[in-house]
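User: Mind token order:
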Amino acid sequence: MLSEQQKSDLILLHDVEAEGEVFFSTLRNHPARSETERDKFALMVQVERETKTRIRSCLTRHCVVHTSEPEVLIRAQSKAKELAETQWHQFIRWLRDEASAYVALCRDITARGATSTLPTLMSVLAHEEAFLLFCTLELSNSECSAGPLVKYLQQPLTIDMSGGDARASRVLK
């Protein structure tokens, strides 16, 4: 059974992913973006959607009913419109700062999470770490900057409970 704080944390993470999905989708469809940028935004949308789905599944398993408020989606669209014409590297620096803050938040939430939610929470943390690495690689003009996001989508998270502790491990499908 989840505490109210743990339920609240999962709902917050769900809404962050729902907001991110709309945010990146709005940016992907902006005409000022290059085809390469639109492709990267499409990948970001996919990562957000996958993570949101994992969180929703966890909420359902724990009998927590939640629907994102319309304000979350409106806020995402508004923020995307504000940043739509920002130069790519400036946008990526902003995104790196956001991802860094979310990594810290996810670590805190994971630390107080219920054992039954650890696979989901570790997946959300891996998602944010993948975004952070993507941004770092993108800012260094790496040709394989999308790699961490693709890898996140290809590798489901499992939890090894042997030895009485929970260690996250990534396994290929």
The chain has six helices and two strands. Residues 4-170 form a domain with the Ferritin fold (CATH 1.20.1260). The chain has one domain: 4-170.
